[in-house]
């Protein structure tokens, strides 16, 4: 995931991912096909763990509004710019 997939290049460390039950903020700039997050020294995250980029926030994951604020844009831009390489998962509810 990177700006080629629609992740805003100018996003700051107010956004990040949710992995191993914890938030991991962005580190540095978003690149074309990747970005780096700070897992911290005590992280239990391992290869193969599910990583949530954004969600509804109920489990502690970053929300679309937080990503929008970190990229100085609106929430609609965050979701509409996600490219076709990214699989979508639609929860039933």
Automatic annotation (TrEMBL):
GO terms for molecular function: alanine racemase activity; pyridoxal phosphate binding. Gene3D superfamilies: Lyase, Ornithine Decarboxylase, Chain A, domain 1. Residues 1-91 form the Alanine racemase C-terminal domain. One of its GO terms (cellular component) is cytosol. Its cofactor is pyridoxal 5'-phosphate. GO terms for biological process: D-alanine biosynthetic process; peptidoglycan biosynthetic process. InterPro entries: Ala_racemase (IPR000821), Ala_racemase/Decarboxylase_C (IPR009006), Ala_racemase_C (IPR011079). SUPFAM superfamilies: Alanine racemase C-terminal domain-like. Signal peptide: none annotated. Keywords: Isomerase, Pyridoxal phosphate. PANTHER family: ALANINE RACEMASE, ALANINE RACEMASE, CATABOLIC-RELATED. This is Unannotated protein. It comes from freshwater metagenome. The lineage of its organism: unclassified sequences, metagenomes, ecological metagenomes.
């Amino acid at each position: 995931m990177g700006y080629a997939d629609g992740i805003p290049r100018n996003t700051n460390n107010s956004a990040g991912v949710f992995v191993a039950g914890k938030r991991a903020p962005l580190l540095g700039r978003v690149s074309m096909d990747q970005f780096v997050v700070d897992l911290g020294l005590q992280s239990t995250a391992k290869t193969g763990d599910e990583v949530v980029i954004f969600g509804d926030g109920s489990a502690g994951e970053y929300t679309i509004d937080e990503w929008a604020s970190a990229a100085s844009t609106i929430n609609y831009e965050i979701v509409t710019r996600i490219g076709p390489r990214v699989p979508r998962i639609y929860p039933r509810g």
